[in-house]
């Protein structure tokens, strides 16, 4: 339980929801609803998701980003989310951290991609202090030149969301589902996934330590109050116009056929 | 004078339309945050969410401003409505993707979409290189022409941008 401190006086409120093993698709639906239909500030922390999933950004093209035949063979669900950014494989080793804020929540912060990214970088600098050479490298969280956190955002008229998938641990075999993307950060230097990424568990002592340090860093900016998921909203109540969705098998199969791709382009 | 010369060269660089052959007055605004000048054009109207409208005859053309594209970064994807769909003043009609982020685009006026800029599917970067020209997004038949009066003129919008950047 989080008990507001006297030093919280004057800080904007933020609702904190902690989950464990929650479905990533349901999490995305929940986030979109909180972004578009609520007016509070929110932090969601999901300690691992229940099944391996591939999650693409809003403009992701399966034929360019994933090894479709292998994904179909292994029956890995593929989700297109409502935020921008790249493609990730997520599973129980992934820790998800999401901030959903009103534009006025953080004094002096312009509601554009780079300022928001920079603000989160400073928040996480405190989290990872003494744990390694942490940097916001272009748009990734990295220790040195090794990425361990991928980010994505969506900005509406009055609010924004910034969510991160942290690689507490990952299965090297799962990375085989991902192609080398066309668009990569400069610091990647064409390295393959296993040379580019690192595991947060090799730097920090425990998942709970990581999560508690996030909460502590957030308390510099917000007065946190714990919210229970069931009491807040029904996760079965999907918003009318949610964008995050599971791609069908037919869509993935169609993407493997060059003729189908060409006809779409025409 | 130097500012007018700079503004003219910016207009050429941005592939701006000229109004019946007459030069278009440009109001440059300087963003301390992005450390760049952005352009605001005469003859256009603007929203506080950084979209522009140019009303010509029965059709209004809508896009995002130079200030907006500069803050968003390189646009890599655009999602636009279909022709025939309705837009509402202040409501979202689409989104752009840039630098890991999707950003809603809001319509400054209400009406019916009569044309969509299909070039943006293959060339979303037109929004960056020509925000007031080839980077236009939709054309709308306005349902309430009076809504245009409530929008910001170029001078007020330029001031709005500078104040917004100064506060951050």
Commentary on this structure:
The complex is a heterodimer of chains A (266) and B (168). With 266 residues, chain A is α+β, with helices and mostly antiparallel strands. Chain A is 28% helix and 25% strand. In chain A, helix 4 crosses helix 6. Chain A is globular, with a radius of gyration of 19 Å. Residues 260-266 of chain A have low confidence and may be disordered. In chain B, 24% of the residues lie in helices and 34% in strands. Chain B has five helices and eleven strands, in the order H-E-E-E-E-E-H-E-E-E-E-E-H-H-E-H. Chain B has helices spanning 2-13, 66-72, 119-122, 126-129, 154-166; strands at 26-31, 36-41, 45-46, 51-56, 59-64, 75-79, 86-87, 92-98, 101-106, 111-116, 138-142. In chain B, a hairpin with a 4-residue loop joins strand 3 and strand 4 (51-56). Chain B is globular and about 40 Å long. The interface between A and B is medium-sized, with 26 and 24 residues.
